[in-house]
User: Fold these one by one.
Assistant:
Number 1:
Amino acid sequence: MKTTKQTKHIKRTLNYLFLCLVALVALAPILWMISASLKSPNEILRYPPTIIPEDIKWENYQAVFELQPFTQQFINSVVIMALVAVLTILMSVPAGYALARVKPVASGAIFLVLLSAMFIPPEATIIPLFQYAAKLGWVDTHYPLVVFTAVLVTAPIATFVMRQAFLTLPAEFEEAATIDGSSRLRTMLQIYFPLARPSLASVVVLSCWYSWNQFLEPLIYLRSPEKLTVPVALTHYEDPLAGPLWGAQMAATTLSIIPVLLVFFFAQRHVVSGLTAGGLKS
Amino acid sequence: MTTETATSSVRRRPPGRDTGRSPFGYALLAPQMIGFTAVGAVAIIWVIWLSFHHVNALAGTQEFVGLDNYGRILTDPSMITVLPNTFFFVCVLSIAGTVAALLLALLLNQTLRGITVFRSIIFIPALVTMVAWALVWSFIVQPEGLLDALLGSVGIDGLPWLRGGWLTLVIFAVIQLTKNIGINVVILLGALQSVPQELLEAGRIDGAGPPRLIRSVVLPQISPAILMVFMLTVVGSFKVFEIILLLTEGGPGVQSSVLSFEVYKQGFLLNDIGYASALAVLLFVLILLLTAVIWQARKRVVFHEDD
């Protein structure tokens, strides 16, 4: 009896040790970044490095805003993200409903076409899309980042998610509503859409996350510093001769991460279900 | 995934109520489909068309060259490095990524005090943008950075992390793998938690120990989720882009480059649009082929695909 209790105890300790190791691998880069962002230029390059800054300096955070219009770049990212989310919802919710509940002729084929969009890598279409944007006069504007992203990436994935959501809702609602004389449109708007709200939250999180993370596209389409988005701006904290300005770069990176962590902290359930929604099976 | 059942239920529906069904459905699908055709289909046809041409970006001329650009892929000496690198990432990231996510999910599925905190922590890197993650790591692996200091304290002196060769590829794989593993872990955790307790109970009564339970009950039950994670990591593994651009720019030479980075380099840094388009088509075809093969193989590995 005593030995089984002991082995149980050892097993639990090992579990915790391993969990702590995993947590360290996940968190160490982020903690190291925050620590570096608070160091003086002198201390940041010292070897061996200090884990905790000797005295906390905020000058790196000042530099973030002096070197680039970081506030503007942050606003750009947020606006683009919001527009992508809105456009994604406008396209994917009706489309998902059509594929799950209305099922017009050939909807199976349409679904497969949309599903295949998930496998198109952005690198494969960036060359024609850039030429496309150039022809439309969209270079150095935010239009391609909103329109192309929503139409090509986030809306197809969201349609997939919304289709699953409407499939899990009982079909009897539709029959009952039809008997009561509700039109197709009204059944959709007043009965099914409100019931699919949790999945709508997932779709918003998913499209926001995708847009916020985008790097290749803004890197290609945007030129002027005041038009850049956060991920591209982060890479511009460099001196042409001396290389990366680590302090300012780490400070800017910290600033870019904090709002996301706050959102995660307050809406953890929605964030988790949103980011895993793309991979969930029916 | 359930298209077969979808079409059959359409057929079963009584015909009388179907009036106006298709027009209504098409109206709902229209914004998505028109947008998708106008951007996606056009882009794919366009990139294929470009891949058959020699494009002079400065003069703005395009000259039809047939399969020349594809022939160049075969004779390009840098492809001898780039293609194996690409396959290295695809194999390592998909297999190691799925196995690691599965082990972590099993670990995090236990009932231990404070386990929810650990579940949240493993998700945090997924919230950081890939660029931020790559920048922090480039700070960590720079000469005389944190990694050198940590290894130095146990007597290992400054390894050439970013000077090409397998070491650079391995460190890139680690950076990429740790970034999004949290998402896969949570997908698998969700599947693990929906394994019916009765099945586990029945297995225990039949005398199966924990390893046997995992192999014979848990793994078959969550195999659809494992397949989904595997497909996601396969597709994702072709997109090791940010790390390469920010840490080595593919260098030295093309030693740490992959196909997706070569598309960017040829197309936007060297302005060789025809060749870059051919590489882009190759990338697209490789992903489609690989996912099609996995999708076909699923019937043999995945338990109760039809539910």
Number 2:
Amino acid sequence: MENLVEARGLCKNWPRFTLGPMDLTVPAGSIVGLVGENGAGKTTTLKLLLGILRADGGSVRLLGSEPGDREALAQVGVVFEDAFFHQSLCPEQIGGVLAKVYRTWDAPLYKEYCERFGLPGRQPIREFSRGMRMKLSLSAALAHHPRLLILDEATSGLDPVVRGEMLDLFLEFIQDESRGILMSTHITGDLEKVADEVAYLHRDGQGNGRMLFQRNKDELLEQYGLLRCSHEDVQRLPGELLVHLRQGAYSCEALVSDRAAVIRCLPNAVCDPASIEDIMRFYAGRDAE
Amino acid sequence: MSAMLLKDWYCFWTAYRKNVVTVVILYGFLTVSSDMAFLACMLPYLMSYYGLSCIAMDDQSGWNVYGRTLPTGVEGNASAKYVFILLSSLFGLVCCWGMGGIHTLLRPGAVDWVTDYFVAGLVCLLTALLMMSVIVPAALKYGVEKARNGMLWVSGAVIGALALVRFGVGGVFAPLTDALHGGFVWLNDHPAMLFAALGVAAAAAYAVSWRAGCRICREKEG
């Protein structure tokens, strides 16, 4: 399967923050969710992939080209949380500018998205709600028929109805298997609905960002488990299965890395599938300790 | 670059059209009613500053990030600023000459259109371009606020230095004052040379600045 994005050993160093080295891939036909704590380097990673920032090490291929390559960027649609056109502009003007930027700009499609999302063509963006602004960004990102969508917190701060509409749009987009989406988000519930793979960028104890894993979402959710049991039961578990343990007065709660093995070992214990949020919470708790 | 120029035009027009119309009408009225031709001659200079406002709007909207995700190249955005400043200051010059025409028609004999408007307006345009040649790369590198403040300090230092030379205690700077005075007298007697020198300097500085501005944008990270 072709990789739309392929990063190997990617790293970026600042005086007080180091990101990576990390590997990340976005296979064609898939939605990859990039999750991580605040300050773990999710936006930095996206900027490195797009060539907005220059990497200090490693390699990146974006649609088979170097980051920043114009031919590659022409096939990428991008939504950043806080970077778009100036708020004095209206959707019609933005469409007019982007029609000159992209050879493949589809003005009727852009208009169709704007109408579908209820975006008035001549109203300045500053009068839009946050949800409307994100819808406009997404309309602009989709209207040139990109192969790859890169979304930075595109659904954060939106109400569940709008988020649902956007997730539907992502699923619609990915129907064409030559396309792919890389989306960073804090809303892990969204990823559980639409993502094929989850990449977890973790802010470690030193405050640096490192990629803990990139895994198939279904396998991940099936493999990790949230164990609730007595202190005695935990003692009987092999240490390598425990990611992190939280001890209460009468029982304890633990994230385990192999749910099936834990159930074999402790048949009477409760071990539910862990959510992405559980996994993040426990990894963060482990490093905090 | 045409897309970025269109974007800058939309930004300027949506945010500043009322301001520009007010400035042109007010300056026109003051110029004609008070016989103060120099006010109209300030227009090329004032209009050139709207280009800086476009850079400020880019900074506010995070264009340094978003623009780099577009297949236009970052140089296109920098070039658009230089073209925009050139066009806006030319618009200022046309307004200045137009006001001069109206002034001459309404108050015959009060001003000389050629010297008070045509020549003075051109000098102001070239001076504005010289000034922008310094400010724009600084604004692209450090942001508009710092560039404007820096330019104010530099201008203050130059005026201060000239004042020091002019009023230097005990004639310390007398030879320099005499030389400068001689230079001004010579330029006054040879206006064509003044134009040529200023024109060449402005064109060269603007071209160098344009190139530097593109390079700054290319090397800057978002």
